[in-house]
Amino acid sequence: MIVMAFISTFASDSGEGVEVEYHPGYVTEDGGRQPAFLHINLAGTDSYLAMRVDEARALAEAVQCVVMLHDAAERLAAEKAVA
């Protein structure tokens, strides 16, 4: 079995945080390769995301960029409110 990114969602806004589990890669009995992956759970819900480590790296980079844009927008809004 090869893990690919997928999302399963059945959630309400629990606000309880995020839990992340690491699952190392391994070789299956028939010689197939299962890559390492992360299991990301929205705490208090039945919503989760599983992705390979390389996908998680790409997501982390994208999220970092979006958060920086958000922070810059908030600083600009605060500066305009003071002026």
What does the model show?
With 83 residues, this protein is of the alpha+beta class. The protein is built from one helix and six strands. It has one helix at 53-82, and strands spanning 6-8, 18-23, 26-27, 33-34, 37-42, 48-52. Strand 5 and strand 6 form a beta hairpin. The longest helix is centred in the last third of the chain and has 30 residues, at 53-82.
Q: Main beta sheet: strand number and arrangement?
A: 4 strands, antiparallel
Series of secondary-structure elements, N-terminal to C-terminal: EEEEEEH
Uncertain residue segments:
none
Strand order of the largest sheet: 1-6-5-2
DSSP E strands, number: 6
What's the rounded overall pLDDT mean? 86
What spatial form do the alpha-carbon principal axes imply?
Answer: elongated
Q: Report the structural category.
A: alpha+beta
SS strand fraction? 25-35%
* Percent helix range: 25-40%
**Rg result:** 18 Å
Describe this structure in a few short sentences.
This protein has 83 residues and is of the alpha+beta class. The chain is 36% helix and 29% strand. The mean pLDDT is 86.
Write the layout of secondary structure elements.
Elements: E1 6-8, E2 18-23, E3 26-27, E4 33-34, E5 37-42, E6 48-52, H1 53-82
Antiparallel strand pairs: 1-6, 2-5, 3-4, 5-6
Jot down its keywords.
single chain, 83 residues, alpha+beta, four-stranded antiparallel sheet, two-stranded antiparallel sheet, 36% helix
